[in-house]
Structures are given as C-alpha cells and as structure tokens.
Here is the input.
Amino acid sequence: MPAPRPLLVLEDDPAIAASIGDALAQDGWRVEAAETLAMGRARLAACNPRIVVVDLGLPDGNGIAFVQEAARRPDIGIIVVSGRAAEVDRIVGLEVGADDYLTKPFSLREMVARIRALSRRLDSVAALARPAATPQPGAWDIVGLRLEPTRQRIVAPDGREIRLTGGEASMLHLLLEAPENLADRASISERALGRRLLPDQRGVDQLASMLRQKLRESSAGQVTVAAVRGRGYRLAW
Ligand code: CA
Here is the structure.
C-alpha cells in the first residue's frame, strides 16, 4: 500500500509554520514545510502533497502564483492563509483554484476542521463510485442538497431555502446537465450572462464565486464550484 500523501505548509513565519505543523501532525498528517515560493515549488514537485496550506505573503513573491500552479492538479486540495482580510485576496485566491481560505489570526482547531472537511471532499470526488446526482423533474439531489435551478433555489438538508439569482440558477443548471458537471467559461457566459465571453471579462468568475458561496453555505462545504484551469468550472462534491 502506498504511503499516505503529505500535507505541505508554505509559510515564512517560523512560529506560525510550527504551530500549524504541530496541529496537523497531531491530526495524523505527515507535514512537509517550505518557507519561500521557490522552496514551495520544489516541494510541490517532489513530495506529491494531498493538501497544501499556502500563506499569500511570502518573501520572494505572492502565494497566488503557487496556488495557480497547484490548482493545475485537481487531486491537490488548496487552503489559502493570509494576514490580509481584504475581500479581493479571498476572491482572487478562490478564483485561481483555492478550495478554502483562512484569514489570520485563525484558530488551529478551525484550520484542522477545515482541512478534514477538504480531505473528505477530495476523497469523495476521487471515489470511482461517486454517487451521481439523482435527477427528479427539474430537481437534482446531491449529498442531501436539493438543487432546483428552474425554481431558482437550493434547499439545504435542514429544509432551509437559499434563493439563486437568474444567472446563478442558469449556471447551476448548465453544470448539472453537462458531462462531468464541467462547463467552459464561454458556455457559462452565453447561457448564464446572455453574452459572448470577452477576453478580460470577469463576470463568469464573479458568478462562479457567488454560486460557490451559496452551495458551500447550504451544504456545509460539501458541494462547491471548482475552477478547472484551462477548462472552466465544475460542480464538485
Ligand atoms: Ca507571510
């Protein structure tokens, strides 16, 4: 049986790196550490991590560049950590493929819980026997979540109703019907925004962010919209 894949912590602050590393080691992870972008890239190639925890402020560059590289591997989970609370960092981090985001200071317990959730999600995405979304007329059931794009709503497992905008509902519908639940940005733009995709258009990414937020909130993080580099967006669970 192959050894379990490690978790890579890319963080330049030694005290934070040590406390993150200790907490995750206690939770059963084999932890690899890197302090710079350059070291992170080398470790990413060498140690085949399952999950990477990435600080955005690194001495030799912005961690976003690392997130982009790691996101080319859909089997790697990415958690961004930043001292900057700016919304724009969070959005950019998620848009370039991060799966989750923590703003410093955060509790180690919360970080461990988020990493457990992400790990479970990666396992369930990877499982060959991924349960298909069960379609009813106009409705799909995924891990306890009922998705009703034609009625512009999501019904959470506890019965709570989350309303969708027309654009969010159209994008969700497209992803539900698409092969592999994956759609390219041009198709999303045409179907959900009613216009051809322009090279610098951010509308699709903003829409994906909003839909991702609603799906994750209503499913406790189990269902998400993942950016698939060079291909578009996928509904993942
Ligand atoms: Ca830092």
Q: What stands out?
A: Helices lie at 14-26, 37-47, 63-70, 87-95, 108-126, 166-177, 185-193, 203-219. The first strand starts at residue 7 and ends at 10. DSSP finds eight helices and 15 strands in the chain.
